[in-house]
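Hi R.,

Here's the chain you asked about this morning:
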Amino acid sequence: MDIEFESVEAIKAFQEQKLHEQLVYLQEHSPFYQRMFHEQHIDINKIHLLEDLQQLPFTEKADLHRCSNDFLCCTRREIVDYSTTSGTTGEPVTFAYTDKDLERQALNEYKSFMTAGVTEDSVVQLMLTMDKRFIAGMAYSLGLRKLGAGIIRVGNGIPELQWDTIQRVQPDTLMCVPSFILRLVEYAEQHNIDYHHCSVKKIICIGEGLRNQDFTLNLLGKRIQQIWPEVEMYATYSSTEMGSTFAECEYQCGGHLHPELVIVEIVDENGRVVPDGEPGEIVITTLGVEAMPLLRFRTGDIAAKVTEPCRCGRNSYRLTPILGRKNNMIKLKGTTIYPPAINDVLDNAEYVQNYVIVVRTSETGTDEVVVRIGLKPLQAQSPFAQFSQENIIKDLKDRFRARLRVAPIVEVLPEDVIQGINFPAKSRKPIKFIDERVH
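And here is the predicted structure, written out as tokens:
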């Protein structure tokens, strides 16, 4: 039986056994953790329970940057694949994978796709990059292959190619960044494509949030549902470092943990574990990783654990939607904001083509937020078609105040200027947030 469907007590005991095996492996193979255990006088034989993890130091992103080679637990000859993190919060980190690690990636995505209702009869169109050292694209493909589903590797962007593929192959499932769905629908409407009666019935979303903390759809999710009500949407959360995906089931009340792949702690600003249900920073300990396992790694992402039983029958805990990144928290006019909340307003504004959010330090030393937007060419029947830039800025600020209680500075720039900021030459993810604050 899948461990996710076992009792909570059985899952905990299972993870504690896997944790012991991982600690032994680190002590035997990891230069970084060998040094940590020695310098901190850590006896791994005294770590028995998941709660005992709190006796161990955290692994920080700075450790990966400074000592990346020391995290490697195998010889170069055993490595079969290399990838890097996206570098969203700094220099990218190179990750290595053995053949066993790629099998683990396949298992992770196999289980995640199954959680989201994908079956061997499904045909999935992957609308994300498979190159640029991106492990997720390969992992999704490996997981779908293990599941036995059909795979269409289209890559990201290019609505024309996406619709040509949908019409030719007729996939039932798309996998993409949710804000791109709006571009897909816009292209379909402009080219008389009947997307309401196409083959697509499910969209698995990556990279951006769909839901609020109470699991209701956020503004972006609501807008997609309104314009394309025939499709079901599923949210996922993952990262290169954790090598595990938290995917929603059909009840869409949080991303499910795969207990054989990762242990999760949620900690406060002082590194103390918070009570279940309270938001904090996600800290992960990977299980079963051969090349570059991590122990108590601080992800910087903010979410909460959900421990109530899920109607799908899985008893592993779940994660709420990501509130934001710890380092990206903004204090605007006394209100705490994370960039995803700003994104949600912008993604739901029908006159916004693209945008970038810049946070900087004001002359008084406080956070100042500037939202720079490119405008869409609007159809004559649009209620905003005759609006001046000043009126559009006022409307957008009103939307921010309604959603966030405060409004940032709004500037209108040419769409192609914003496009160049969003997609610099070496980027594999769109850059929508720039932090210029003096820390």
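One quick note: Residues 8-29 form the longest helix (22 residues).

Cheers,
M.
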